[in-house]
Fold this sequence. Notes:
Blueprint: H1 3-17, E1 20-27, H2 31-41, H3 46-54, H4 60-79, E2 88-106, E3 112-128, H5 129-135
Antiparallel strand pairs: 1-3, 2-3
Helix pairs in contact: 3-4
Amino acid sequence: MGARKRLSAENRKEALKSLYFAKLNNVPTSPRKMRLVADMIRGMEVNKALSVLKFSTKEASNKMEKLLRSAIANWEQKTGEKAENSNLYVSTVYVDSARMLKRLRTAPQGRGYRIRKRSNHVTLFVDTKNNNENQD
């Protein structure tokens, strides 16, 4: 690895140390369905987002709730504080498409229709309101 590449990798790692996030890879749900759930909680306070996800009827909300709990635990681990005492909120949520399983469904006259079983990657960032206001 060259010096420039190593330095940029070290800078990227240092920047990630100040961010609090959780990532979930290869979720077997289509990205479109997961984005609907992500849009529900983006920008919300953490406790409110957890209750919204808990009582949502969407299948993707279960996985998103688990991911949010993981991000909160990561924040608690890095800062040493409890989440109940702070103004924690969901700052950003990314939903990217992941691998796609391609299957064939039999069709009339000897043809085959392609079925694409999609999956996604979800990245969820949490931050405190006070921290965000001090930087501006």
